[in-house]
Hints:
The protein is α/β, with parallel strands linked by helices and 386 residues long. The chain has helices at residues 35-49, 64-74, 83-86, 93-98, 106-110, 126-134, 162-174, 201-208, 222-230, 234-237, 275-287, 292-297, 349-361, 366-373, and strands at residues 2-8, 12-19, 28-33, 53-57, 79-81, 102-103, 117-121, 145-150, 190-192, 217-221, 242-247, 251-258, 261-269, 302-305, 320-323, 338-339. It is built from 14 helices and 16 strands. α1 (35-49) runs parallel beside α2 (64-74), α9 packs across α13 and α13 (349-361) runs antiparallel to α14 (366-373).
Amino acid sequence: MKVLTVDVGTGTQDIYLYHSERDPENGFKLVMPSPTMRVFRRLQKATRDGEAVALTGVTMGGGPSFWAARDHVKAGFSVYATPDAGRTFNDDLEVVRESGIKILDEEEVAGLPDSVTRIEMRDFDFQAIARALGEFSVSLNDLDGVAVAVFDHGNAPPETSDRQFRFDYLADRLEERKRVDENSPLSRLAFRRGEVPGEMTRLQAVVDSAREVDAPFLVMDTAPAAVLGALQDPKVKARRRVMISNVGNFHTLAFRMGESGVEGLFEHHTGFLDRAKLEGLLRQLAEGTLTHEEVFGDQGHGALVYDATRMAFGVGDYDITVTGPRQNMLRDSSLRPYFVAPFGDMMIVGCVGLIAAVADRMPELKGPILASLRGEGGSGTPPWEV
C-alpha cells in the first residue's frame, strides 16, 4: 500500500512516499521549495526582466508571493490576477486592488498579450511531484491515497480578524474532544473530498487542485498534522501528558496533550517570539494560566485552555517535545526539550501526522498503517524486495 504525503510550509514543501511493506526509514522523500517560494522567485525574475505578470489558478499560501507581487508593482510593472488567484493575498479583493494588483476575469487574462508572463497559483502540483519522482524511476500510478497539509486562516467575514476567525474554527472543531471514539481528536481537522468546511478556502483549493488524482484524497491543517506526527514517536506516545511545540518559519504552535486528548493550545507568529517569550508561553500553558487575550493581543492567533490543572513541566524527560524548521530557538532551553524526529527525520513530522490521519479517516487503510507506525509493517524488508 502506498500513500503520497505532502506537508506544505512557507519555506519548504516536504514530500514523503509511504509504503506499508517497506521500513518507514526507507520511504522516498523530497524537501523542496514551497509553492509560495516558487511563485516568489518567478515574480522576482519578472521584476528583473521588466515583465508584466498575470496570476492564474487557485487560492494558495501567500506571504513571500505577496511580498514579491507588491514589490513588482512598486517597481512600476503590472500584476494582473484572476479572482481566485487574487484571494491568495486577501479574501477581500478590494484590499488586493488597493495594493495595485489588477483583478481580471479568466477571459480578460486570456486576452492579455503573450508578452505577459503567466504564473499559475496552486499549493499542490501532483504532476510536478510525479515528474520529479519519475526521474528516479518512482511511479505514482498505483497510489492508495494522497494526503496534503496546508495552513488555512479561513475566509473571515468583513471586519473579522482572520487570526480570531482561525482560532474560532479550531475551537469549533475541537469542541467534540470529549466524544469517545478510537480516532485522534486532531484527525477532526482532516477532511476527505466533499467534507471541507466552506469557509476553509485554501483547504478547498487544494482539493480542487487534485482533480487529476485518482485515489482517496485527504487535506489537513499543518498544525495538527505536526502534532499528530510527533505523537507517533514511542517516547512521546508513552507519556500520560506532554507538550508538543512546532516552531515553524511563520507560525509557532503548542498543543498540551493528556489522557482526555487536547488539554490546551496556543498559536503565535514566530517572528514575534524569542526563546524567553516562547518558554514563558509554554510554562503558562502548562500551568493553565495562559489566556487567549494575552496571545491575541501580542499579534498571535490566540490560546485555548480546556484543562487548567497544572502540568508538571520541565522537570522530567520528554515533558516537552519540539519540532519544526525553527526548533533551534529552544535548542539550549532550560525546559530540557526532546527534539522529535520520526523515522530519523524531523522534516517529515507533518507527513507522518498525515499518515496517522489517513489511518483515522480512511478505515480501509488503517490496519497496515498502524502496524507500520508501531514498527511492525515491513520490518526487516529491504527496499529491493518490495
